[in-house]
Amino acid sequence: MRKINFTKDWRFFLGDPVTKGWHTPDDSGWQKVDLPHDWSITLERKPDNPSTASGGFFTNGRGWYHKHFMAPTEWQNKVVRIQFEGVYMNAEVRLNGHFLGRHPYGYTTFSFDMTHYLNIGGKNLLRVCVDNQAQMNSRWYSGSGIYRPVWLLISEPIHIAEHGLYITTPEITTDLAKININTSINNESDQTETVSVLQRIISPNGTIAGENKTITTIESKSHSCIVQEVNVTYPQLWSPETPFLYRVETLLETNGQVMDVEETNFGIRSIQIDARNGLVLNGKAIKMKGGCVHHDNGILGSASFPNAEERKVALHKANGFNAIRCAHNPPAPAFLDACDRLGILVIDEAFDCWREGKNPYDYHVVFDDWWQRDIESMVLRDRNHPSVIIWSIGNEVLERDGRSDGAKIAQNLANHIRKLDNTRPITSAICGVWDDLRTWEDTDAVFAALDIGGYNYQWQKYRSDHERCPDRIMMGTESFPLEAYENWRSVEELSYVIGDFVWTSMDYLGEAGIGRVTFDGPDFKFLGDYPWHQAYCGDIDLCGFKRPQSYYRDIIWKHGNPLYIAVHYPIPEGKTATVTRWGWHDVDANWNWQGREGQIFTVDVYSAAPAVELFLNGKSFGVKPTGETEKHIATYNIPYEPGELKVFGYQQGKTIASCSIQTTGKAVSLRLTPDKASIHANENELVYVTVEVIDHDGLRVPNADHPIFFTTSGAGILKAVGSGNPTSDEMYVGNQRKAFRGRCLVVVQSSGNPGEIQLRAQADGLESAVITIYAH
After folding, report:
1. How far is residue 96's CA from residue 162's CA, in Å, rounded to a whole number?
2. Rounded distance, CA 693 to CA 702, Å?
């Protein structure tokens, strides 16, 4: 099957265009766009937008896309399908005026057969209506539009079905792995054919590890499944530490003529789970250091570029995570590809609700009609990814307490997944009940349908539930950042608790201010008012910068830096600070408080050492314990004076670590740091450039908030500008952004042409900065 990128040269219209019909080729008033495209991120946020704080006050609405294309004569007698990786939401697709189909769910991949409506040898018009105007339909920022890539799938009448390969590894030893390959073949021709299927396995080093050839007969207008076995000697096992990937090359022939070729990556690995041994991967017990992740790509909105998805995964890996829960929907294929390559375990989740809705227009509207098709889309697409180790059928669904046939729905969903893939356990994320008529024990019936019990914010129930249900395997599918210590200790101490997933590991748009510090007293709102638009609860902020809670997690996970100095921001006079349940204290490694000399500042030291001693300009403020009793935190009250705060970590009286922060000089210049020096010259390639305001010594000035202006020249364009400021009312498109705590981020996109890309940053009163990136 040929897979042709179909993302270039589309036209977009926001609203409903005046047209004489679906087939009208008029482009007047339509904007030229390339996919992926999220129109919401490009529009002004407004406090009265119907998306409300849940959607980050972004503008949604209804939009239309169309694309003119030629259908070459070589497509004659071929099968041609159009595949959409993701459209948010309520997509309707027509080709040359003919209705191909609709797809309500915004997060699953879908395709339509275009064969019979193509104008072979002539012009064609594909039109897509995307309807996201019925609000509210999401509890977070969804984005709007064709936000993931689109592909043309071209095949012979006899071909491998879409997502038609299913690879499992039922037997693995040190010396041998048995690989089962189930190939689904469609014969759409008018005659019965004899077909040969050659499966060749390519090892991580590029050599042939094994092969099998089978000959079979497939009747006209029918479907057949071929099961083959290939032995691989001395297999290299996939794991987070060793993400070895094998590849299956499938060759389909009829009468010596090649009908189809497909390449599929997979990994050889085994999974076992039980309450006694927990999660065992390749014969070794493993605990999941996890984070929940929404689908958006920060300042890009929901637009899914391979570079953006890979960066998201790489940031998790660099910050100690070995697992990600996709909340609360199937992720982009490029995200899973990156998890395969980099070694991250994945919980692949289907839905945020079932029949009972959480918003007026969310998935519950179509659940009964569409759940089976959407489950199939998720499982058939993703089941060959070695990174995917658990399926999840839902998140905090209202039916979790047994109402509305909840136990039956859970069993139906789980059983349907098991028909499609019986190699992975199934979970659902379950939180406390929201109904005074029900108790926590009422969730047992839904738990019974699962292989792993997902616990959202319920670590206190692990031990008592184990006494009631000793065979139940548990994991913290969501946890509060401020309870990181308690959650991780539970994972370490209890064999039947296999991991913990913080809400969240990476910040996201929407659920505005769920992680904020508020001064509104005990009756503060769940979400923040405009201009709050980021959740502000991630270990990693919207730009990918590490936040203080991530440094604390380093301590309890024994990863990265063993010490961190967290200075509390001053509280307004007469106010009391309250950290929301998903938040973290408003702290930073910042000792720039000029004008507040003598004022007492609260300073926390996060420490992996048993004790610490904090100094200000050489003056000791005492030795304090930072062991398990103190949850690895010591708190000091320090009168501010400019200079250096330095902390030493002690073990048995000996210094084992140290770190310091200091008052910086005046901001004098800008610094640009790209995440790569060169890129491929195609439109999918992105460069992330960190922008910092620095002093004479090259130190970032943490209270700098200068407006910074950007220009590009050469073979690239400004794709996005942004910061981790959750209350900024600036746009994420354009050429300017204020620094937030001394930095911001720019995304540069290749124009598709080779050559130099020059990015310049400038701000009033600061020395400008220029970098060159090479596209080849």
Report:
1. 24
2. 8
- CA distance linking residue 152 with residue 2, whole number of Å: 8
Distances (CA, A) of 153 to 11, 72, 113, 582: 21, 14, 9, 43
From 14-23, 341-350, 695-704, 736-745, the region with the lowest mean pLDDT:
14-23
Tell me which residue range forms the domain holding 95: 2-155
- Spot the catalytic one: 396, 511, 685, 692: 396
Q: Is 206 exposed, middle or buried (0-12, 13-18, 19+ CB in 10 A)?
A: exposed
CA triplet 273, 279, 280: central angle to 5 degrees?
90
Query: Given 310, 349, 478, 613, which residue is catalytic?
Result: 478
DSSP 435-451: -TT--GGGGHHHHTT-S
Angle at the Cα of 309 (from 204 to 688), degrees rounded to 5?
Answer: 110
Contact in structure between 530 and 546 (CB atoms under 8 Å):
no
Q: Residue 669 has which token pair?
A: 């210049």
Q: How many beta carbons lie within 10 A of that of residue 62, not counting itself? A: 16
- Of 640, 662, 684, the residue that ends a domain is 662
Q: What is the pTM of this model?
A: 0.96
- In this structure, are 131 and 200 located in the same domain? no
Q: What is the pLDDT of residues 276-301, one digit of tens each?
A: 999 999 999 999 999 999 999 999 99
Per DSSP, the three-state class of 281 is strand
Asked if residue 146 and residue 170 are part of one domain, the reply reads: no
Q: What is the CATH number of the domain that holds 579?
A: 2.60.40.10
Say how far residue 174 (Cα) sits from the centre of its chain: 34
CA distance 79 to 76: 9
Q: Are residues 425 and 297 in the same domain?
A: yes
**23 pLDDT higher than 70:** no
Do 416 and 400 lie in one domain? The reply is: yes
- DSSP annotation of 610 reads S
Measure the N-to-C terminal CA separation of the chain; round to a whole number of Å.
28
How many structural domains comprise the chain?
5
What burial letters (b/e) apply to 243-271, b meaning 16+ CB within 10 Å? Answer: bbbbebebbbbbeeeebbebebbbbbbbb
Contact 758, 724 (CB under 8 A): no
Could you tell me the strand order of the sheet in which 246-254 lies? 208-218, 193-202, 246-254, 257-266
Q: Is residue 396 among the annotated active site residues?
A: yes
- Do 246 and 381 sit in the same domain of this protein? no
User: Quick one: how far is CA 468 from the chain centroid?
Assistant: 35
Cα 379 from chain centre: 17
Residue 539 neighbours by CB under 8 Å, 6+ apart: 291, 319, 481, 502, 504, 505, 506, 546, 547, 549, 550, 553
Q: Which of 203, 236, 266 is the last residue of a domain?
A: 266
Q: What is the pLDDT of residues 247-283, one digit of tens each?
A: 999 999 999 999 999 999 999 999 999 999 999 999 9
Within-domain flag for 171: yes
249 is catalytic: no
Residue 513 · residue 726 · CB < 8 Å: yes
Is residue 582 helix, strand or coil? coil
- Cα distance between residue 262 and residue 184, in whole Å: 12
Q: Assign residue 39 the CATH number of its domain.
A: 2.60.120.260
Instruction: Tell me the two tokens of residue 510.
Output: 């929407």
- 326 and 419 housed in the same domain: yes
Same-domain pairing of 682 and 731 = yes
Rounded CA-CA distance 712/756 in Å is 10
Is the pLDDT assigned to residue 21 strictly greater than 70? no
CA distance 114 to 27: 22
Element (H or E) spanning 553, and its range? helix 548-557
